[in-house]
Amino acid sequence: MRRLAQFDLNLLETFEAIYSEGGVSRAARHLNLSQPAVSHGLARLREAFNDELFVREGNRLVPTAMAREIVGPIREALRNFGFAITSAMTFDPATANRLFRIGMRLSGEAPNFASLVTGIREIAPSVRLSSAHFPRQEMPQLLADGRLDLAIDVAHTERAGLNRELLRQDQFVVAARKGHPDIDGAISLETYLAQEHVFASPRSTGLGHEDAALAKLGKERAIAVRCQNAMSAWQIVSRTDMILTLSRRYADTFQGFEDLQVLPLPLEIPLAEAFMYWHEASESDPGLIWLREQIRNGMMAQS
Fold first, then answer.
1. 78, 148, 162, 206 - which has most CB atoms within 10 Å?
2. H or E element at residue 246
């Protein structure tokens, strides 16, 4: 590669846009540039790195090994440059026009996102919010790359460069339909174990906290149906004699289902915890400081 002093740093934005968008035309729209300008930028990038960087497969441009190797450092450089520019600026929510990307699992979006959107938009009407599902093992890298501004999830192993804060702890409850032949206003452990259960999880394998607690007692529940989210599970429970174990906060989001009863779980298990995660590189970003404060206040107020 040529000396840095001879390199146009604007080309880094062109590289990142082509990498993310998978094509020159889409990158041009993303950058609000003409297609010839982006094509010219790609030619300069290829000359600078002495590599094709992107090759065509069907209707997309896919990165070469060289491009995959340098995309991380380039994204970090762009992010750091952006932070350097904005660090001295204040964030005014009343006038800000900014997109915030919040990583949320499906189980976290339903009980949290709507109230967060409502609260934030009341004081920041032009701020845009995007909730994105993410594989848990990829969360640290998504935050490091800036593809997520922050994430809300269960406890993860602590990692260098990744900050976290406990937002809320929540009890687990049991949901059953009103008119259930065995359950009316209360449920014992014996009755709990005698029922068929619906288990809601986006994972295709694995069990829940309640199963681990039962295993310590030498007991096991009968899971008759496994589905991907609590909304589906809630509807199943309302139409059958199966029961569902879920967090109190999640159950509260379905309070319009008047044909269901929500009862204390007859089992000692750890509280459901929700953490907020962000990368240390975004620690001083005024907009993200504000966003974290809104989420912190909003979710604690829901507790």
1. 148
2. strand 243-247
